[in-house]
Every structure is written in C-alpha cells, then in structure tokens.
Specification:
Structural class: mainly alpha
Largest sheet: 2 strands, antiparallel
Number of strands: 4
Number of domains: 2
Distance between the termini: 41 Å
Amino acid sequence: MLRTRLLTAAILAPIVLAVVLVGEPWVTIVVAIVIFLALTELISLLDAGGFEPPQMLAVIAGVAVAAAGLIAANTDNVSGLPADLLRLTQPIGLETGVLAAAILVLGFAGFTRADPRKGFTTWAVTSFGIAYIGILAPTIVLVTHLAPQGGASATEIGGLSLRSGTAWGLMLLLIVWGYDTGAYLTGRWLGRTRLIDHISPSKTVEGLAGGLVTATIGAGIGAWLVGLPAWHPLVLGPLVGLSAQAGDLAESMLKRAAGRKESGFLIPGHGGILDRIDSFLFAAPVLAGWALLVAGFVV
C-alpha cells in the first residue's frame, strides 16, 4: 500500500505543482473537474448512508453552487454574463444566492418522501452536501487569486519573486502536504495513542504532533515565498495544519456513516478524489481568511 501511495503521489504531485505554477485558467479548470468528481463521490456516500439524496438534482445544484464560487473567485478575470451576474447579485453575493436557490429547490425533493422525517433528512443532508463541496472547494481557487494591497494576483512578491497567487497556492500545498506527510509517517512509526478512535482509528496523537511540526516547516517556506514576517508561520502552520486534520476527520465521519472505507477508487493507494481534497476543503478557507484578515492581502 505504501509503495502504491508513493508512486501515485510521485505522478500527481508534479502535475498539481505545474497547474499552480501555470496559473489561470488551468487552476479553475482543474478544480472544476475535481469538484464534479468529488460531488459524485459525495452523493454516492450519502446514498450508501441511507439519506436518499435526489442524485441528478443534487449534482446539478452542487455544480451550480460551485460554478458561482469559481466565478466569484475569478472576479478579476471575468467579463460579460458572469460579470453581470456578480454585479446583479450584490450585496448577498452570487454564490450565496445560488446556494439559497438550490436549498429551496432541494426542499421540493423532500416533499416526495412518504415519511416526513425522511423527507426532512433528505433535504437537510443533501443541502449540506452541496454546500460542503460547492462552497468550500472554490476557496482553493480563491487562494491563488490573493494579491498584495494595491496590486494584483500577478504582482511579483516574496523570496523568489513569484506571482502573488502562485506563491499563496504553493503555500497551501506546502502546509497541507507537509501536514499529511508528517502525520502519516510519524503515526506509522511512532503512533500509539488514538486521536479519535470512533471516527478514524488510524489517526494518532503522535501523528498529529508530527504533522503540525512539518506543517509549520511548510508554512515557513511558504511565508518566505509570500514575503510574510517570520512570526506568521509559527501561528499559520499549526492553524492550517489543524484545519487540514479537521477536514480529513470530517470526511472520515461521512465515510463511517456510509459504511465505506474510501470515497472512491480513482486514485490508486489513496481512494477517491474526495479522499485527496478533504484536507484542502478546510485548510483553504482558513489560509484565505488569514491572508485577508491578518496578512493584509486582498482578492
């Protein structure tokens, strides 16, 4: 299993790095494909868990919400109809408006269930599912559009004079991959104390500690790429690392509810698409929030 994981990572990691380095429109295109595949896996998990989501309607609603989020993340690059939609949906925002419409439509699907309890469960869980993917995943793209005050995402910053969006995208990868690698190896070699046994028996306190160390190292390199003061990674590394772990546990809880070990089978040694992006779904919003609220960057 470890050999398969390493081989798959050796193939996929350079591809992901290349996409981040090339930038738009490839970042959005790749994330859009990943979102669609993750949505299908999520709906399959919900169905296996007995929540009976209206599958086709859920996919359409999830894609619509995610598309709105991707358009919003690309505000500086869009024109025509997408730009008009962004303008017309202010102040609530395009993504919020589409999500609200999706929740309303999904409510009608709940009416078709003979048991009102099942109808409500179907409505609530399906609405959660499309928000989980459709709202959180586009923030990955948002990170790659971060810009310094008075500049743009293409403004060169940091130790290597990279484009701002590229530097922030690399920081996200460094922290999340750093955490995942450190937690996996430390847990495998030193893990003794279970972290949250009823959700993910393989996670250990020792793995958590090792992951936070490597996440902080990754944040340190990322802070140099972005040009942040030295104290930032000391907070940002553990903060985003813990968020990545929370994202992994959240998806593990979903798989437990569905009675499955993996979300899919598309990535050998790693499971499905959702298994690979679960950490990013929680880490990206936290990193974007830090950049906007603490580091003084803008979108």
